[in-house]
Every structure is written in C-alpha cells, then in structure tokens.
C-alpha cells in the first residue's frame, strides 16, 4: 500500500484559499487518490477523488501532476466550518472489490476569523 | 446519498463485559465492510476487513478473539469487543463498500468508554 505524507497542521483565515499537499511516492498504477474530511467524533466524509490531472467538484479541487507522486487538495474561500482534519488516501479502486484504505496522519486545518 | 449507520453512537460499559457495535448500510448492499479504531488526536487505524459470508481478515496486531467481527448479511456487520478493558476505550468507525458501484461510505462512528 502506498504511504502518504502530509503536513501535520495548517492555519488559515476565512475567505482564503487553502492548499494541502500530499506526497505518495510509491503510488501504484491502479491507485486512485482520495481525500476525506473528519470533524471531531464523526466519521470521515468524502471530499474528492482523482486519478490524474485535475478534478473539481462543488467543494474542492484536486490537482495531480503527471508523475502522480503527489497531489494537492485545494479548498477555495475557507470558512470556520472547514476546520477539520483532512486525510489523503491512496488505494486501488476495484468495483465491488475489497481493497482497503489506510489512513495517514492527516492534516489538521484550523481556520480563524 | 448512501448512508452507513452505526449503533450505538456511544456506549459506556464496565470492565470485563462485552459490547457489540453494529454497522448497517441503509440503502445499498455492501459485500465488504471495514472496521477502524481511532484514539484521541490520532488517525484511523484499520482493524479488519469483513466480507459477507466469510471470516474477517484482521490487520497485524489486532486480536481476532478480542474483536469479533461478523458480516452475516449484505447490509450488516457487527464488531464485538469481548471482555472489554479501559484500554479498549476508543472511537470505532466502520465503512462499507457498495457492491454496485464500489464506492466507499463511512459510518458516523461509535464511542466506547470502558470503566
């Protein structure tokens, strides 16, 4: 399983764009990159998933360079409610399969006024 | 969207008792479910992978006789913490993979406190 490395913590202010980078040097060909958000005492919540280049949804963008050895989660105009731990996961996606996802340390994002 | 429900959301028990935590996929079938444990200010640690109708696969260092996992149907997996001790106090989270789409959904977690 590909190991991921993220900054332990990041601080930001409301309205700013936040970019969290994750390193995954040993990513395999079949691996996808998935980001989750977790609030205290809650289960992780899916944010975005991608394989290469750029993916965008209503809450975030995910940038993946050509070598796929890293990825960057971009949160536009963060608010206080975005204060949470963000996890970058790398794993093989098999429809109906049983691949497991291993969580790294995550990045604690703190958003202030 | 798809929902994974865990019950109970929190439980307090005495040392030596057994506690069962349920994980249900409410509107989809899940051939595979995963159980995680999370201590305060730490990441989620995968405990085991459970496949419907077969024995669970435990991660290294996780005692299978201590943490009994049953995945008897396509919508239900249970984790039983047997003879619980204070060090078993933790936040237990399950996730379920849709048999249809392969998407993975997480439950809201169950907080166990052993006195």
Descriptive overview:
The complex is a heterodimer of chains A (113) and B (115). With 113 residues, chain A is mainly beta. Chain A is built from no helices and nine strands. Chain A has strands at residues 9-13, 18-23, 31-38, 45-50, 53-56, 61-64, 70-75, 84-92, 107-112. Chain A has a five-stranded mixed beta sheet, with no helix packed on it. Chain A has a four-stranded antiparallel beta sheet with strand order 2-7-6-5, with no helix packed on it. In chain A, a hairpin with a 6-residue loop joins strand 3 (31-38) and strand 4. In chain A, 32% of the residues are buried. With 115 residues, chain B is mostly beta strands. Chain B has strands at residues 4-7, 10-13, 19-25, 30-38, 44-51, 57-58, 67-73, 76-81, 90-98, 104-106, 110-114. In chain B, strands 2, 4, 5, 6, 9, 10 and 11 form a seven-stranded mixed beta sheet that branches. In chain B, strand 9 (90-98) and strand 10 form a beta hairpin. The mean pLDDT of chain B is 93. The A-B interface holds A 36, 41-46, 87, 93-98, 100-106 and B 4, 6, 31-32, 34, 36, 43-46, 49, 51, 91, 93, 95, 97-102, 104-109, 111.
Question: What's this entry about, in short?
Answer:
Chain A is mostly beta strands. Chain A is built from no helices and 9 strands.
């Amino acid at each position: 399983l590909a190991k991921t490395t993220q900054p332990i913590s990041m601080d930001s202010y409301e309205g700013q764009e936040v970019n969290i980078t994750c390193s995954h040097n040993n990513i395999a060909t079949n691996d996808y990159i998935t980001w989750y958000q977790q609030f205290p005492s809650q289960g992780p919540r899916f944010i975005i998933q991608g394989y290469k280049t750029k993916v965008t949804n209503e809450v975030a963008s995910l940038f993946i360079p050509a070598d796929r050895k890293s990825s960057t989660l971009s949160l536009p105009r963060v608010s206080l409610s975005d204060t949470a731990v963000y996890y970058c996961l790398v794993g093989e996606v098999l429809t109906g399969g049983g691949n497991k996802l291993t969580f790294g340390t995550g990045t604690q994002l703190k958003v202030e006024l | 969207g798809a929902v994974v429900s865990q019950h109970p959301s929190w439980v307090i028990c005495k040392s030596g008792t057994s506690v069962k935590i349920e994980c249900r996929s409410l509107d989809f079938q899940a051939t595979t479910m995963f159980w995680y444990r999370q201590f305060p200010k730490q990441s989620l640690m995968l405990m085991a992978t459970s496949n419907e109708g077969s024995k669970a696969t435990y991660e290294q260092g996780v005692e299978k006789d201590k943490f009994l996992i049953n995945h008897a149907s396509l919508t239900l997996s249970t984790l039983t913490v047997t003879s619980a001790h204070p060090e078993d106090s933790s936040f237990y989270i399950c996730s379920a993979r849709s048999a249809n789409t392969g998407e993975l959904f997480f439950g809201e977690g169950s907080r166990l406190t052993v006195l």
